[in-house]
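TL;DR need structure tokens for one chain.
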Amino acid sequence: MSEQSFHLVCPHCQATNRVPAARLSAAPKCGKCGQPLLTASPHELNAQTANKVIQKNDVLTIVDFWASWCQPCIMMAPEFKSAASQLPQVVFAKVQTDKYEQAAAPYNIRSLPTMVAFRNGKEVARQSGALPSHQIIQWVQSLQS
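>> reply
TL;DR here they are.
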């Protein structure tokens, strides 16, 4: 019987790593660049990295689609960062839709901010509107079952 493992895309070099489930809580590092795979901090995605991170990560990945002109997005940014710091085994990422429209287009984003939860390359939930960190955490924890 083989141990379950997960694919994780490195937020630093975009290499795809296979991590045994038992090692997810042990601060796994990238096999290519040696940087931490789970940073407990949101990382910015661009048009090239967004699709790879969303499609290749097997672990729960929360993507905040936002825009620089969107006041609720700006207000939610520190809340999203705070939630990420409290959920270190979840990948948190951000896509700036006014800068990378083509990265957001496949996900049919209609309002901002919108957080979309992905697992194994598939959307599992979405939440539109700015939320405080405790509500982001509650929402993410409800998806971890």
